[in-house]
Structure formats: C-alpha cells, structure tokens
From TrEMBL:
Listed SUPFAM superfamilies: Thiolase-like
Natural source organism: Methylobacterium ajmalii
Family annotation (Gene3D superfamilies): 3.40.47.10
Domain of life the protein comes from: Bacteria
Name of the protein: Acetyl-CoA acetyltransferase
One Pfam match: Thiolase_C_1
Domain Thiolase C-terminal: 236-377
C-alpha cells in the first residue's frame, strides 16, 4: 500500500544566487535573490508564499529573518537547523504542511556569503565537553577520524578517497556554474597539503558563497504550472549523536536508518534510483553514504568508487553538478542537492545530463550527526 504522503507535493521552482563568490552581498541578500529566482521559475508571486522554511549558519532565527527580508507574513514558519541535512528535512516538513492545508506555497531557502566574509560561519559542529580538552579542529577532525577508522577496518586507501574528488571534478568540468574546474588527478589529490590526517585540501569541500531556494506546492496545483514538477516520493531522517565523541561507530552513519525510511515511503528500491546526490563535504562522506544507503556492502565503498564508477560514464551517476568538492559549498550544502536533482529530472542539465526519472538527495549535518534522505521523481513515477 502506497504511503499517504507519497507524491502529494512537488518542487515546482528552483533558484540559486551568488555561486562561488559574491563580494559585497550579505547572506540574507543572497537568500532573497535565490528565493525570487525560484518563484520566477515556478511562475508564482512572492505574495503567494504562505509557508517559509529556512536555515542558515549566520542567523539565530533564520525563518523569521527570511520572512522579514522578503516582506511576507507566512502562515507556516519553520526553522529546523540540524546542519546541512536541514533542507531534505524541510522538504518533508513542507510536504506535510501542504498536505494538511496549512499552507499553499512553501518556500525553502538558504544563503551564505561564507567565502567573501572570510570563511566565518556560526559553527554547528563546535567541540563539546567530551572533545574540548583535545582541541579538535571541527568539523574536519571528526571526518578525518572517520576516514582513518575506515582505512584501518576495511583497508580503504588514500587513492580510493582521491577517486571521489576526481570524479566530482570530472562532473564539475561539465557544469558551467561549478566554482572549481580544470584537470584533477588522483596524484594531485594525494599531493595536496594535509589538513587533518589522512585528509588533504583536495579531500575537503570548497568554501564558497552561494544561495539556493526551491518552491513546493500540492501535486494538483503542480500539474497546472509551466515547469515539470519533481514529486517528493519519500523522505526519512535520523540522528546518531551531537558530539562526534558519542558517534556509536565511526564507519557507520545514520543514513542506514534514514535511507530505508525514504525508500519505504517512496516504494522504490535503491537500484531503481538513476541519480544520487550525496552530501560530499569530504571524500569519506561519499564512500560512507554509498555503503549506508545500500549501494555496496559496508567496507566496500572505497573499492566501489575505484576506476571511475561514479564519474561521467561510470556505472552510477553521483553528484553530477560537481558536488561540494568542486561545484559549491557555502557552509550548508543540502539545498544545492535538491536544485541539481530537479535540474536533472527536468532534463535541463546540459552536458552533464543523465537519464533521470528517480533522484535521491542525501543530506548530512554536523560531524556525521544528522542524516536525511529524500527521493524525488518525475510524473512517470507517480
């Protein structure tokens, strides 16, 4: 029996702003520009928005800040912030609010000027009392520990981690909006400056400016709008810890829980997914999520990505925009996963286009702390 929320709401508009560098513009200005772009894409007016969902790394009350800046008074206000996975959760929250009739047009938005503001971001991964005496450099310390443990337990190599970055760059080279383009080899990644052993600079996501937004409506209305809708078929969330010192297993994330919940709601199998958009803040992320979402056995992620399996022309399309490693990463990346998934579902990705009817977006927050999975589909998947 189909889940009652499956396909009840759809993304009908997407927008971005200030990708890469946006000197002179604030986070809220970038958020507002992306929001207006998404509404224009949907063919909807700002005064029709009556639900706002927002999270940022610089506002204590992001949904209120966004509503005030945009000059709207929404009926639904939601500012859940569990890190970069917040926006996949917002998709589910917006679908629930739309289905319940609490709002008619839901706007999900994010903006950051992290790069031109000097890299400053309100940390959502600050050291906790368990970790502070050891002076970690969060968030990278936690991810480096996860990578080191994966290497120790399963024989994962630095070359296999590097293959993730090389694949991301190959996709970015097909994306004119990607911030980092140009040749990249495994040798380049291995030779990059070590930031936190075993991770080097090129194992780490970019630090950029950028904003993204999407608009959701109920499916009945989506069918009447100009752009092809991307239907929310399933979503799931999970959390395993707040402080990295409390992570039960450094090689297993809560994606093992959020993924099955999303697949069950969507009524699809992992192998039916055409496109995976995985939150690749560090190269180890992609390997962990491929394992935990069921694309290879635990410990086999490194071997899975060898030989260009997730690069253009490989067996599985992963992070076709170039990901956080080569496209854009303005502090919190989760909403950019959705933008690329919708772009691919519409068939508007240009040189990087892959045949896509089902797309999975997987968000990550904190130091592998919060995980959220969302599955979007074309009209043919309803």
């Amino acid at each position: 029996m189909a889940h009652p929320l499956r396909g009840r709401a759809a993304v009908v508009g997407i927008g971005t702003a200030g990708l890469g560098e946006a000197p002179g513009r604030s986070s809220i200005e970038l958020l507002g520009e992306a929001a207006l772009s998404a509404l224009a894409d949907a063919g909807l007016r700002l005064d029709e928005v009556d639900g706002i969902f927002a999270a940022t790394g610089v506002h204590g009350l992001p949904a209120l800040s966004a509503a005030e800046y945009l000059g709207i008074r929404p009926r639904v206000i939601e500012g859940t912030n569990v890190g970069g996975s917040s926006f996949e959760i917002h998709l589910l929250q917006a679908a629930l609010a739309l289905d319940a009739g609490l709002c008619d047009v839901a706007l999900i938005a994010y903006g950051s000027n992290q790069r031109t503001a000097g890299g400053r971001l309100v940390s959502i991964s600050e050291p906790q009392w368990h970790e502070a005496p050891y002076r970690p450099r969060h968030p990278i310390t936690g991810y480096a520990m996860a990578a080191a443990r994966h290497m120790y337990e399963f024989g994962t190599t630095r070359e296999q981690l590097a293959a993730v970055a090389v694949a991301a760059r190959a996709w970015a080279n097909r994306n004119p909006d990607a911030f980092a383009r140009g040749p990249l080899t495994v040798e380049d990644v291995l030779a990059s400056r070590v930031v936190s052993d075993p991770l080097g600079v090129l194992d780490c996501c970019l630090v950029t400016d950028g904003a993204a937004a999407c608009v959701m409506v109920r499916s009945e209305r989506a069918r009447d709008l100009a752009r092809a809708p991307a239907y929310l078929l399933g979503a799931g969330m999970a959390a395993s810890h707040r402080s990295f010192a409390q992570m039960p297993d450094l090689t297993t994330t809560a994606a093992r829980e959020s993924g099955p919940r999303a697949f069950a709601m969507a009524g699809v199998d992992p192998r039916e997914i055409d496109l995976l958009m995985l939150y690749d803040a560090f190269t180890i992320n992609t390997i962990l999520f491929l394992e935990d979402l069921g694309y290879c056995p635990k410990g086999e992620g490194g071997r899975f990505v060898e030989g260009g399996a997730i690069a253009p022309g490989g067996s599985l399309a992963v992070n076709t925009n170039g990901g956080g490693l080569s496209c854009v990463h303005p502090g919190m990346y989760g909403l950019f996963l959705v933008v690329e998934a919708v772009t691919q579902l519409r068939g508007e990705a240009g040189e990087r286009q892959v045949p896509t009817q089902l797309a999975l977006c997987h968000g990550n927050g904190g130091t592998l702390s919060s995980q959220a999975t969302a599955i979007l589909g074309s009209r043919d998947t309803l």
